[in-house]
Each structure stands twice: as C-alpha cells, then as structure tokens.
C-alpha cells in the first residue's frame, strides 16, 4: 500500500516541486513551525490524497519530473519490503491497515451516535438522551484502544523500517571506501544528515501518508453516501470549496519549497562551522583566531536567520488563508442545511451528522491546503535520499574527469603465485615478494595532474623502503594508490598475501579490499576512535563487543564482529600492557584510570602520544606490510629510533614517507620522487640503496 500510494503523493508533490530549485540539496531538520505542521499531519484521523482532485494535463517536461520523483521514491522505499525481513514487515503493515480500517468504522459509528444524541437533546427526551449518552461512553471505552494501538503499531513499524534502512545505507556508505570518495571529491553535502534525519523523516512520513490515503478511500465510500442522503447540493459545495482552497494554497505557498531547501543547507553550514571550531580548538587558540571564527559563525548564522525570516513570512501568509479555510468549515455545512432544519425537513441531529461527514470528506480533498509544508518537506527528503541512493548505487565514480584508464590494484596469495617473481625465479620464504609496482603513472582524481610517472618497484620481505621528496611531489598520494584510495592513472599494483588457505585469492578478488592482518596504513595524524583505551589499541584489527542497549539487548541482535580472519587471537590485557610498554606509553594506563576508561583521546593525548598509540596498534596486529605516512613526525629522534627498532624486531616490513635524514638507517632502499614535469615523459623518480648511502656518510 505504501508503494501504491506513492504515485498519488508524487502527483501532489509535483505541484510544489516545479517551483523549487533542485540544484541545491541539504539535510532536512525541521524547525519548530515545521514540527508543528508535521504533528498536525499525523494527528488528522481522516486526512488524505490529492488523487481525488482533478489534475490539469501535464506537459512533457512536468510529466518527466513527476516520473523522476516517483522513480526515486520507489527506489528508496522498495528494498525494505522485498528484503529478508519482508514477511514480518508486510504482516506488521497489514495489522496497521486493519486497525486503520477499524478506526474508520468506529468514526462512522460515532457519526450516527452523534446524530441520535443531538436529536434526543433537541427533543428534550431525557430517557433517550441518557441512553445515547451511555452508548457514547461505551463507544469511547471500546474505540479509543483501537486508535491508540493503530498509532503505536504505525510508529513501531516506522521505527523498524528506519532501523533496516539505516543499516542498509550504512553498509553501502562504508563499502568500498565510498565514504572517503564522497568526502574527498565533495560529491554531495552532509551524507550524515541524510542517513540520520532524512531516513527518519522518510519512513515516518511515507507510512503516515499511506495510512492517510487508505483512510481517505474508506472515508469517501462511507461518508459520501451519508452526505448524499442528507442533502446532495452540500456535496457540490464541498467540491467547489476544496478545489478553490487547493488552488489558492498552491499559489500562496509556491515559494516555500525553495526556502525550505535553502534553510536546511544554511543551518547545516552553520552547524558544521561550530563542529570545526570544536575539532580544531587548539589550533584556533594557538593562532588567536577567535575573532575570525566569530565573524565566520555570525555570517553563516545571519544567512540562516535571514532565510528563516523569509520562510516565516511566507508561512504566515499561507496560514492566514489555511486557518480561515479550516475554521470556516465549522459553520459552512450547518449554514447550507439550516434552511431544511427550519422548514422541518430534517431533525437537529442531522445538522451535526452533516458537519461531521462534511469535515471527513473535506479533509480527504484538502490535503494540499492542510499539509502544504509537510508535503514540500517530504518532497525534499525524497530528492536528497534519491540523490544519495543513486550515488551509492553507481559505486562512486572514482574520477570525475571520466578518465578511461585506471590503476589496477590486485591481491595475490603466496600459494597462487607459487613464490615466483616476474621473471620466473623461485623466491625463498625468507625473501618473499610482498609488493610489485609496474609502470605506475599516478594522477590526481580531480584534475588529472600527473604526480608520478612510469614507476617500477619490487618490495620483498624485510625490504624496507623510504620515500622522500619535496612537499607536493606525490609521496602521500602514492600511498593512497597503494591503499586503493586513488585509482586515477594507469599501471598495476600487486600485493602478495601470506594466506593460510586457498580461499585468499577468491576472497581478495571478490571483496577488492585488503585485510587488516596483511597490510596496515598509519597516517600522520592517527585516527582516535570513540571508545576506551582498549578499543584504541585493538582498532582496526579487532572489534570489541557491541554496546548493549539499556534493556540489555544488542543494537541489531547480531553477534560481535570479528575483523581478523587469519586466525590470530585477540590480544589479552597483558598483551596490551606489554605493547604499551614497548612504545613507552605504559604510564598512560594509570594516568587515565585503566584500559577501559573513556576519554576524548584526540584531545587528551598529544600528537606524539597518538602516533605511539598507532605504533602499538601496528605491533599488536602484526601485518606483513605497513605503510607509514610520516608516522613519527611529532616524535623526537630517540623515540622515533626506538619505534622503528620495535617494528623491525617484530618482523614487519614497512614503507615509510619522511623528510628526516635519520630515517635512512632504518631502511634498505630510498625512493626519491621529484615534482613531475607535465611536458616530460621521463620518470620523475630514482631508487637508491640506503645502506650504500649510509656507508658513504660514515666514511
């Protein structure tokens, strides 16, 4: 029913969307007046659909917009109802519609009870009045639970739908590093808000509208017959009143859609600026940039404030009409049938019955009038989620410039490669090849600027490589290519994994991702997860038990995820303590109250301490190959030397980026990268033997 209701809704929404600028999109976050509108939307027991209104013929361009909106709605809404949970979801939906049907029947019953009640009152029939009053009280006692249970069933189904969709979108957002590509290439704004706010709004509003359409259908069947029986001209008055009200509402509120789009974007920009102040508090304090930040924050707030002022004025103008429209219907049906009462053709209770039936049917016809802002907001939600969904389905274009060539990144198991190098020579276990780079030309993903040209390199076990060069020459970009973050360019990068079984090749090819047990990347500024000190050390190789909800159950009922797939056991508390001592951080356990203490670690630990935590992760996870991007830049030379000695003792092969000459003694090879010349086709790199350089220096 939800998916069937969508064409009706999109037809109504089309009247609004044609006035808006779809080029801007931003996360939906209802302001107070929007919340008030939506609460009204959900409280109307017999609201409905504009499919009952005659629609003007759509021109081809408008028809295509309508089809696009419907297609996006279907694409976002359908997966849940055809998922592995479809049977339970459809059963819950059937229960909601059954309860809705029951509440409509109860409303019809109250319509007749009201007629007899007021007839007894007008006739001064105390006995009949007492009897009807008793019927009314019994009806309330029996009917109210159905209304409560209907709303409860609807909200729980909406929550279940939102929970499924949140997990569905999170899995796709975090798959194949889509989150990184979206952020690094600025593809869309605020994906976090789309997952949090838009999904919540979409599920609740879609379900509410579907119930509204269902109620409207039953209302029309039930109350139209009542209205025709009382006085046919009253039905004609109803049609004219609803058609006129819809046309005037669309005219008065045509600017609201675009104002809502702009408001959400401006609010998101202001909120993002505040988050940046919080995350960069120390840097701002060092620079003394408080006044600059104040000016930026006030400028963004002023922009949101000015737009909100326009939005409130537009809403005020619309409410002048909609409030009058809503209150006039309290007397309009009575005014139409009053002459019949005065002439004695109908009883007094029939006036009340006609008012009730009139209100029910008018609510069905007047969806646009009553819910203009709610519909426009929902249209925006469909547009934003549809845009996000399309982006995730297209697997995030890696190169916006549409470059045809792409770097080939593959993972081969040692058994599959039979321990042979490219010229067929058999390798020993002690000299196993870990990485092979062939004819690699690396370009920036945004504008195609060449950073590295025609690079060849082989890395064997214990063959430590240091990458050096001027800033901006492409050192970190080369590691991004190795990590699979950048694919712009051409050439081939092959990793040789030390698998424990024959499934490694198939697993790596199908997933397209490296295992945390094989390769680990350490950035210059380590990522500090939200959690305990224990969780900092176990990241990313092992996950800890999922947080329990207050009721004691896990978030989705699934078992804790174990990321390591190479059979390596999770480190014990003693292992963690010994590793902290190895990186000279043993004192922080007592300093912060134990391994399970919770702190904002990126704030309470210095950058040097954070880098040592990253090395502790490296020692615990024991990868075959580590990629270090200036991972000791915040450390003194003594601590730097100590950490490199630790990972050498652990048997980890590493590739480092650095500027200090003291790093050369911890590496066997040095790759020098110079700034690429766009006019030259020669390689901008050279490989040197680090041991030979150290010997020359020693001499």
Automatic annotation (TrEMBL):
Record keywords: ATP-binding, Membrane, Nucleotide-binding, Transmembrane, Transmembrane helix, Transport
GO molecular function: ABC-type transporter activity; ATP binding; ATP hydrolysis activity
Chain spans, region Disordered: 549-570
SMART domains referenced in this protein's UniProt entry, alphabetically: AAA (SM00382)
Positions of the ABC transporter domain: 435-699
InterPro entries: AAA+_ATPase, ABC1_TM_dom, ABC1_TM_sf, ABC_transporter-like_ATP-bd, ABC_transporter-like_CS, ABC_transporter_sub-D, P-loop_NTPase
Alphabetized PROSITE patterns for the sequence: ABC_TM1F (PS50929), ABC_TRANSPORTER_1 (PS00211), ABC_TRANSPORTER_2 (PS50893)
Transmembrane portions of the chain: 93-113, 133-153, 206-228, 234-257
Keyword Transferase annotated: no
Gene Ontology annotations for the cellular component aspect, listed alphabetically: membrane
Annotated Pfam families: ABC_membrane_2, ABC_tran
Family: Belongs to the ABC transporter superfamily. ABCD family. Peroxisomal fatty acyl CoA transporter (TC 3.A.1.203) subfamily.
Protein name, as recorded: ABC transporter D family member 2, chloroplastic
Native source species: Noccaea caerulescens
